[in-house]
Every structure is written in C-alpha cells, then in structure tokens.
Specification:
With 229 residues, this protein is α/β, with parallel strands linked by helices. It is 38% helix and 11% strand. It has a single domain (9-228), classed as HUPs (Rossmann fold). Strand 1, helix 1 and strand 2 (33-40) form a beta-alpha-beta unit. The longest helix is centred in the middle third of the chain and has 15 residues, at 104-118.
Amino acid sequence: MPPGPRRPKGVVLLSGGMDSATVLAIARRELSELHTLSIGYGQRHARELMAAHRLARHFRVKREVVVELPVASLLRSSLTDRSRRIPSGRRRRSGIPSTYVPARNTIFLSIALGYAESHRLERIYLGVNAVDYSGYPDCRPEFLRAFNRLAALATRSGVEGQGRIRVLAPLLRLSKSQIVQRGEALGVPWAMTWSCYRGGRRPCARCDSCLLREAGFRDAGAVDPLVTM
C-alpha cells in the first residue's frame, strides 16, 4: 500500500483548562510531533500552569515549554490585578467583562508563531471558543482569520513559500457541552484540568469560567471530577 499523507508537526497553546486539554487530545491524534507552550503572565489563577504540566506529561508531548512573561502590571484585568474583584455569576450586561486580558491571545499567538517557525512546526493549536464563552474579542473567528493572514505575511516561511504555519481552533464553533462530549470520547483526564479564575484549592463555583464549565458538564450529562472530589 502507498504511504498515507504525512502528518504535520505542531504546538498547542496549553493553559490547563478544559478547552485546551481537549485541543491537546485532538492534536495528539493529528500530529506526528507534538509540543506544548504554556505562558505565565502573572495571572491570579497560576494554578492552571500546574494543570498544564500534568496534561503535557499525560499526553507524552515531545517538548513542554513554559514561558514566564512579567506583564501583569501592563495588562489591566481582574485576572492580573489582585486589587480588582473577579465578577461572580454569568455576565448579564453587554460589554466585555473585567476578566478580559488585553491582547492576550495576540501576544500568546505571536510567541507561538515564532516558536513554530524556529522549530519547523506547521500547526499552532488554540483552545478558543466563540459559542459558550465570556465574550472576549480575541476568541472570535474574525480574529483567527486575521492572525492566519498575519502569519503568512510576517514569517520567513510564509514569504519564501517554505510552508505556511496555520493556526487551528478546533473547538471554535462548539458549545461547552459539545466540548465535554468530545473530550469524553478522547479520554481527556478532566481531573487534571483547572478552570477557576480565582485559583484556590477548590473551584469557586461562582466565577464565569466555573459556571461555563458546570453548564457544559451538566448539559453533556457528564460528571466533573473536580466538583465531586
């Protein structure tokens, strides 16, 4: 039999949350070589980096990279400023919530793009979602289309035709319950993940991220091990 198509190599931007864990499981099946990139930016819920480390080990990635960016004082958000209150309950009024971190995905993807080009990786996987989400502008399809155009224009590989680096967001148009169902089918170890914005010993069950997670598991008819622990 002739050989099948060559599988690409890639990197997953891994936060340690349920979405990025599901994307990691997807990438594990689609890539011939898998790297992860996790970024500490002074977030209050830095516990998610421990979750990312456990997930990287579980999925046996070739290389796990953790980057520390001392930018918390530059990016005004309730996730980076402990003097600001993290809102409780789902967002009811229009507008972007205080948990939005300015340009976060643009910064993260720029680092991932440089890393991918340096290591001859063809894919960048990102766990953003534009269905059940907090309304962040850098989680929308328009943003991802724009960044893919940028990646083609701003890299040597794109300009010289050596191979385009593509940003993929396989969960972009899925609901949270569909993400849980996909993760269940892929064997995502939910107990290793972390979603709570407050980053305590247990999920707070009040912040937007916790409530989105709770609704996803409930609507999927699945059990969240972090709640039953």
